[in-house]
Design brief:
Elements: H1 2-9, H2 13-21, H3 25-32, H4 38-50, E1 54-59, H5 67-84, E2 93-97, H6 109-126, E3 131-133, H7 141-152, E4 159-163, H8 169-178, E5 182-186, H9 201-217, E6 221-225, H10 229-241, E7 250-254, H11 259-267, E8 272-278, H12 283-292, H13 294-307
Parallel strand pairs: 1-2, 1-8, 2-3, 3-4, 4-5, 5-6, 6-7, 7-8
EC number: 1.5.5.2
InterPro entries: FAD-linked_oxidoreductase-like, PRODH_bac_arc, Proline_DH_dom, Proline_oxidase
Pathway: Amino-acid degradation; L-proline degradation into L-glutamate; L-glutamate from L-proline: step 1/2
Length: 308
Amino acid sequence: MLGPVILAASRSDRMRRLVSAAPVTKPVVDRFIPGETVDEVLPIIQDLTDQGLELTMDVVGEDITNPAQAEAARDAYLELVDRLKPLDLGARAEMSVKLSMFGQALDGGHELALKNVRPVVEAAAEIGTTVTLDAEDHTTLDSMFAIHDELRKDVPQTGCVIQAYLFRTEADARRLADNGSRVRLVKGAYKEPAEVAYQQRHEIDKAYVRILRTLMEGEGYPMIGSHDPRLISIAQELARTAGRKLDEYEFQMLYGIRGDEHLRLAAEGHRMRVYTAYGTDWYGYFMRRLAEKPANLRFFARSMVSKG
């Protein structure tokens, strides 16, 4: 199992230096992260939306060690909102945020993260779009859900992410489905202990289907975060069974992975949203993409051999 090894490497400063210094790293990273600045990603946003796709934008970076860095993360998202406004895309370009970037892990982190993320959520609402709170490791989730509940009091379209591999998620999904939340369901990309999470792929897949059925049958708006063709087919069948129209759920996939499938689903009339990350602090995001799927790691390894 290479996934846990890669996830451990994502937290290693030594591995960060080695990967960053490798001459092949940048062209490979560019497959998943199309730019470091707003100016670099604006043409990507325009191009994808012109093709009938939607986006969720993520400013990468999680290693926040002081309140000033958390405020800088807030300001980076506020800049993104400001630059999206003249494009008049509305909900076709939303944002995803990790509360760790907003200071969640610092002293008084829950209140600090809420204080920093609230203006981003409110600014997004003003231009007709929304924010989804990304899920991180299991120790952060009670705080994330509490912040989500608080934000929805004023901006009910604020979304959140749940992870199929956690035992707790089926109960979380029932609550979120009952209260009408926007919910992105993913398999999960953090190394979690066996006490709290399924460890085998088939167990995770079965949990994913159970949870997705709950979301489809509920009052909320399901967002299917998966590249797995079998799960995509199952999602379509669950949506039909639940009587959902094509605009009452959506698919989400990562920028740089299965681009042809993005276009196929959009051409069939599905809402297809591309998770598009940008920024200078790309290392942790990049390593989790490698850990999630062996094909991504093989792609990187082949590139190292061919360019070395």
